[in-house]
Structures are given as C-alpha cells and as structure tokens.
C-alpha cells in the first residue's frame, strides 16, 4: 500500500502555534510505526472556547487530525462537520490535561476514545482525493466510517464531513447517542475494546440489518410487469420472538404502489386504481428519484400535530384537492433499476432502496425508516405515542404478492375495514347519517358485523348521507339470517335503508361480541383505496413464527447499574444493557430551550452513579411537572399516587403526616423521572436517625439587585465563619440563582438544636455585615441583600439534592464544585441538563470526596454562638 508523502517540515505548523515552555502538550517528532502493528487512532474531547472533539488517525509518523464540533455518531444519517487541522505528533495520542490560558487551544483535554484503525483502499489517494474510508476498533467506536472533503478551492478551512457507514454497528441517534452515553475518559475509566465488550450475539435488540454494500447486480434484469399486487401482512396476536426482524411504524394512511418506467411514474392504489393525477406532486417527486425502471411499495400519509400521521387529514387532502400536503413513505422495492429484486432478502432490497434516498434531496417521497429495537419494544412505544401499531418483517424474506406471515401487523387497538351495507337517518336531521350498518365477506355471503353511529361531525354525516342515497337499493344484501327481526341494534331497528355493498369504512373497536358484532365501534373514514369484495373479518392469529437468521446486534451503552458494578470491580467484564425506555420522549418540558423529556431521562441516567449517595436512605420529595415547567408544578412527599420503583419508608417516621418516599437505586430514580419528576429534594437526616440531622445547610438566596460577585463573596464569608466555628463546609450551585453551603455533622442533636445553630450563624452574619446579609425571609426584606436561608434545617424541610435539575427555564442543575473554583463560576445555574454531564467528564477528582468521611460536631459552634444543646 502506498503511503502519503511526508511534508518537507513535519509538524512545523503544530510547533509554530505552541509555546512548549508553557503548555504541557508534547513537542514530539515524527516517528515510524512498528512493523506489523496496526496504526492507532484517538479521539480527544477538548473543552476550549467551546466543546469539540479532535479526531486523529496515525499515518506516516504523525497523527492526521480533524476538529469535529459535534463529535461522532453511529447514525449514518448524521453528517458531522470535521475541519482538517495541522498534523500532531504521535505522543499527543496519550495527552490529557489542561492547556494554560492564553495558549493555543487553552482548555481541558481528555482521551475520549482510542484504538486502532484499518484504511480501506489507499489512504494517500484518499487524502489527496478527499475520500477516506476506514474501520475503527476502539473502546467506544467500531465499524466502517468515512471522511469526505467538502471544502472548495480557495476556502479558508479544509472542511470535511465524518459519518458512519451502514453496517452492523450503525444505529439511529434517537436510540443511541454515544457522545451522551459514554462521555468520560477511557484513560481514567478504561472500557476495553467495544467489539470484545459487547459480543454481538449477546445483545437483546437486533441490529439494523442493511449490509454495507448490497450488490443487486446479481438480480435478473426484467421488463416491468404491467400490474403488481402488494405483499400483505397478517394480523398477529403477539409480537414475534427472535432476532432478524425489521420493525417499522404502521403508518395510518393509504397503501400505494408506484410504477416508474422511462422516467414516468404511475401511482396505483391497493384496489388497482390509478391516482397519478390526484397525487401529481408525489408523482413528480418520484420521477426525480434515481430509481431507473422500478416498482416501489409504500404508504401515503399526511402528518398531523406532533409529527403523527393523521388519517382524516389525509382524506381531506385527497378530497379537497390539496395533494401538496401528502407524503409518500416508501418501504420496499420489488423492482429497482430494471432488475427484479423480489427474490432478494428484504434487508438487501431496503439497503438498495436506502442508497437511492441517501443521494436524493428532501421531497414528498421519503424512505420509511426502521428501528433497531425488538417488535415488542416498538409496539409498546407505538402504543404510548397513540400510533396505530407497527409492522414486523422478516429480514430474510422475499417479496410475495400475497398475504404472508413474514410480514406481521401488530396493532395497539382493533381496527379494520367493513363493507357498508346500509344506514339509518339521524333523528331530527334526515339529511345526515345516524348509523352505518356494517358487514364483511365470509363463505360467499355478507355477514352482519354491527352498527357504528359515532366518529363523524355534521358535515361528514351529510356527505356520507349523499353518497349512500346515491347507491340505495330496495332490499338488503346481507346474509338473510342477519335481517331477521330482532337481529338489529336498537340504534337502527325499524329505520334501515339498504345500499349496494361497494363502499368501505374503516372502524376502530375494542373487541368482537360473542355473536360476532363489533363492540364500542368508532368510525374513522371511508376507504376509497380498498375494494369492498376483499373485506373479510380480521382475527389476530397466534402466528407460528420461526425467527429469521440471527443478524449482528448493535453496540449498547452499559446501564448505570452495569457501569457502577464495573467501576467497583474493574476486572469484571462489562455486559450489554437494555436501552432506556421513555414514555413520551419527544414531549418538550422547557419551551425556552426546547429540551425534551428524553433529555431529562438521559441526564438522570448518566449522573445516577454520582447522585445516589446524596439520596441514600433520606426521605425524598419530588417536584413533578406533568405539563412541563410551563404548566402546573406540584410537590409530592408521600405516596398518595402510585410511583412504581420508589420505596415507601416504614410507618411512624413522621407521625401524623404520612409515610415517606425513598430512592434506593438508579431504577427508582429513572422511574420517578418517567413520572415527570424534575426536581429531587432530600431531608437533612436519614431514616435510621430521622430526628437527628447529619448535615447543616445554608441556602444563599440573593435579593433583587444583588450582584453575582456579592453572592460569591457571601459564600466565602459563610465558609470562613463556619471554619471559625470548627465546621468544614462544601459548596454546590443551587441550579437557580444561588449557592448552597453544606457542612456534614455527626447526627447527635435533634433537628430543633441544629435549626437553632443555623439561625444563630445567619443572625451573626446579618449583625456583622448588615449591608450584605439579612436574617429575615421575604423578598421585601432582602432587596440588595442576601438571605442565608437557615429554615432549610427545620424538621421535614428539604433542599435540592446534588445533581438535581431545577424546574426553571433552562433546566439548571445543582452542581458540587470545589471551593477554589468559586470565583470562576458565572451563576447558580451555570450547568444545565444539556451541559452538566460534559462538565463532569472533565472532572478528575470528586470535589466532595472529603465530605463523606468528615467527622465534626457542633460542640464548639454551639458554645461560641450560645445555642442550648438541651432543647428538644
């Protein structure tokens, strides 16, 4: 393999930018790689003027380097900007530390990932031509990746893009964000190779099954058939087990086959109707795709509120002549580029189809994405989101124009099409439909399925009435048994009008009654795309499913519990963990930032290991926000409502007030967050000595007009006073406007005594420096001054726990900080749920490490301030 030529002065640009008398970075020299060894790669996380990632590949004695602002992603759809910068010396690969102020790149650096890489093809040609393909074998990253130059001649920066190629390691960003899941240094916490740590056959969720390079050249060339019936799915009673299933959302729309020949598209409904003229924008978008001669299979929808398909809106767009609102989601390609792909496995057909869309600009025609989760997981998520259900397809299955068990429908509620056999007039409005008489075909006759009388408004009822009157007949077409006296529902008895059985209605219902009628039906829409002759009763089958051949699974981030166990036992192998399931993950909880519920859950998952010691054995109060921080907030101290996962403490800890809640592990923490808890507050005592606090807390609350510099000064003064009283204290931001100063104490005195001591401290501060401090609460009392809240120390009073988010715009976080960084703080909400975990990844030492082992009493403080230790 040819190697790129070495520049005339290797590392000259690197050295020109640095003063090695001041920066700890290595000066280094180009070095030859040891024979037979694979070249190394490293990704350094660098918090300079802003956070970014430095991606470096060893080649020809140096580290080829790119600055990647957003870092890498396993999602091939995520194209990350990568600015090619100066080569670095090989010794830089192990560099971690702080680059001093006023030096180039001033800030903190950690080694985020490291390992070896394999070039695919000639890297010299790749660097010259601007296309570098390679495989990574790291502790976090693996699989095939690509760097592509996008800079034009004369551009100030040599800009590339970095992205993941599609292979067994590819993963949707919504399912797995490696940056958020694994933010820490691999030097401080080695993980080992991800390919060894995450055995592919051990992961529960199937991998995305698209192959890297699907060669369809082996598929036979073929003239397009004039007609092609779609493959149909079987309604299944339960999700299939086993790997090898491709899972897609069941789109609430119209099935549509599209035929593209000689650059012209025709759109054919499931019933064989040509809708090309009705869907002209969709046809035009199809003709712009590079499909060659093709048959494509998909669904047309109109997206409603929240990005969810709206069936009624689709029908309105079709009937009302608004086709520009309609989108066509394509999920299969039986024919593509003049070749018959029907015999190929579905995974290969979809991979070929995905390549077509990857090269196309956004349009009304879109690729229907699948999701790297099991059918059961996807069905649960779809039902929570109020979707119709999901479709599970065998990855190895051919395309068959028939109903098969290799495609399965999994529905959240029963819903199917029925033939409209008759109707009744609405009482008091003879030009509107009162109810529809439903039927389905079975054994050559139309069987009565019941009546539906809800689901439409007056306008729709009138439109239905006009259509039905136009096809009215004198005698019923239902099974004669069905029209005997007494067979009708009370809704229609005596006023039936019959129609030709040619119209199809889609109806949702809860179940079938023992006599074969729908229970609690709800009309959804007419289905002009379906033939009434094909309508039969759909009963969910317990389909005998044989799992498809196992496909390579995805890498997963270890759970909090797995990371905690691994940290305690470094020699123990780290196993895979199930992905975090979040209800309503896209719900915005902070309109000011757009932060969503999934951001909050991922934050709490990432800090649980640090947060749990601050929660351990303490009664906890929750601030819950069912409608986000802009809605109503409520405080919960007791288990009045069910909170799965949280422990209820024993009776009698707080007589007369009810039982208390506790969070013992990460599962309980996340369960509370799932229940829309944003803030966590704890008592100053633990359940074993509930009336004797083991800490004293001072909450520095600035009044109107108090500068941040004055608040920092107040924290130092509070610390100094406590030190003179024999109490070492620790600092954390409040997550809001203020700061918290906390002193651990031996749990010897009752809470009334501790409260008196805290009040005496604050009175002393207010008396000594009245221009800065006030001892009385209330906004009017602290204008221009700081109220050091000693009331936090009374019985049952609580303080926001370390690492808790706060239910305020921005979702600030209460962050423990070392005293020597106090003056560098910019505010009490300096870190938010979006930035706190990144800050912690650069933290080399726990600023509160000494807190847990501190042993100190209030004896000296009480004697100095005249507090009576005998008060009860």
From TrEMBL:
<keyword id="KW-0234">DNA repair</keyword>
<dbReference type="GO" id="GO:0003887">
    <property type="term" value="F:DNA-directed DNA polymerase activity"/>
</dbReference>
<keyword id="KW-0269">Exonuclease</keyword>
<keyword id="KW-0067">ATP-binding</keyword>
<keyword id="KW-0808">Transferase</keyword>
<keyword id="KW-0378">Hydrolase</keyword>
<dbReference type="InterPro" id="IPR014145">
    <property type="entry name" value="LigD_pol_dom"/>
</dbReference>
<dbReference type="GO" id="GO:0003677">
    <property type="term" value="F:DNA binding"/>
</dbReference>
<dbReference type="InterPro" id="IPR014146">
    <property type="entry name" value="LigD_ligase_dom"/>
</dbReference>
<keyword id="KW-0511">Multifunctional enzyme</keyword>
<keyword id="KW-0233">DNA recombination</keyword>
<keyword id="KW-0227">DNA damage</keyword>
<keyword id="KW-0238">DNA-binding</keyword>
<keyword id="KW-0479">Metal-binding</keyword>
<dbReference type="GO" id="GO:0005524">
    <property type="term" value="F:ATP binding"/>
</dbReference>
<dbReference type="Pfam" id="PF13298">
    <property type="entry name" value="LigD_N"/>
</dbReference>
<protein>
    <recommendedName>
        <fullName>DNA ligase (ATP)</fullName>
        <ecNumber>6.5.1.1</ecNumber>
    </recommendedName>
</protein>
<dbReference type="InterPro" id="IPR052171">
    <property type="entry name" value="NHEJ_LigD"/>
</dbReference>
<keyword id="KW-0548">Nucleotidyltransferase</keyword>
<dbReference type="Pfam" id="PF21686">
    <property type="entry name" value="LigD_Prim-Pol"/>
</dbReference>
<dbReference type="InterPro" id="IPR012340">
    <property type="entry name" value="NA-bd_OB-fold"/>
</dbReference>
<dbReference type="InterPro" id="IPR012310">
    <property type="entry name" value="DNA_ligase_ATP-dep_cent"/>
</dbReference>
<dbReference type="Pfam" id="PF04679">
    <property type="entry name" value="DNA_ligase_A_C"/>
</dbReference>
<dbReference type="GO" id="GO:0006310">
    <property type="term" value="P:DNA recombination"/>
</dbReference>
<dbReference type="GO" id="GO:0004527">
    <property type="term" value="F:exonuclease activity"/>
</dbReference>
<dbReference type="GO" id="GO:0046872">
    <property type="term" value="F:metal ion binding"/>
</dbReference>
<dbReference type="GO" id="GO:0006281">
    <property type="term" value="P:DNA repair"/>
</dbReference>
<feature type="domain" description="ATP-dependent DNA ligase family profile">
    <location>
        <begin position="328"/>
        <end position="444"/>
    </location>
</feature>
<dbReference type="InterPro" id="IPR014144">
    <property type="entry name" value="LigD_PE_domain"/>
</dbReference>
<dbReference type="Pfam" id="PF01068">
    <property type="entry name" value="DNA_ligase_A_M"/>
</dbReference>
<keyword id="KW-0540">Nuclease</keyword>
<keyword id="KW-0239">DNA-directed DNA polymerase</keyword>
<dbReference type="InterPro" id="IPR012309">
    <property type="entry name" value="DNA_ligase_ATP-dep_C"/>
</dbReference>
<dbReference type="InterPro" id="IPR014143">
    <property type="entry name" value="NHEJ_ligase_prk"/>
</dbReference>
<keyword id="KW-0547">Nucleotide-binding</keyword>
<keyword id="KW-0436">Ligase</keyword>
<keyword id="KW-0464">Manganese</keyword>
<feature type="region of interest" description="Disordered">
    <location>
        <begin position="1"/>
        <end position="38"/>
    </location>
</feature>
<dbReference type="GO" id="GO:0003910">
    <property type="term" value="F:DNA ligase (ATP) activity"/>
</dbReference>
